[in-house]
Amino acid sequence: MSKATHTSAINTSLETFQQDVLEASEQKAVIIDFWADWCSPCRVISPILDRIASEYSDEVVVAKLEVDDGENMKLAGRYKVRGFPTVILFKDGKEVARFSGAKSKQQVESFIETNI
Questions:
Q1: Catalytic site residue 95?
Q2: Other Cβ atoms closer than 10 A to 2
Q3: From the candidates 32, 36, 39, 75, which is the catalytic residue?
Q4: Going from the N-terminus, what domains does the chain have, and what CATH number goes with each?
Q5: What is the C-alpha to C-alpha distance for residues 11 and 74, in angstroms, rounded to an integer?
Q6: I need a labelling partner for 78 at 20 to 30 A (CA). Which of 34, 50, 96, 98 fits?
Q7: Is 39 a catalytic residue?
């Protein structure tokens, strides 16, 4: 996995979600990846989202939430996440769109362009 040149995805948690995602989405769209370590499709989409974080750093922030870490599953419940990975796009503190499962880089780019 290569390091992003400009910006990379940030890790968020139940404790920092308000600031990292909701408040940040007032300035720029935020994509949050609800993922789990045991989830194979999560490992497929993770490097794609890292590239998106770098290439689209002017338009979006990419955040990642490990659902099995600490109390993070509460956020998955709050947003009715049923499977992993689930990627949700927030703007102005509100959910705008989501998708579940691994997607290609082109599909993620299309998702971003359609929803920002």
A1: no
A2: 9
A3: 39
A4: 10-115 (3.40.30.10)
A5: 16
A6: 50
A7: yes
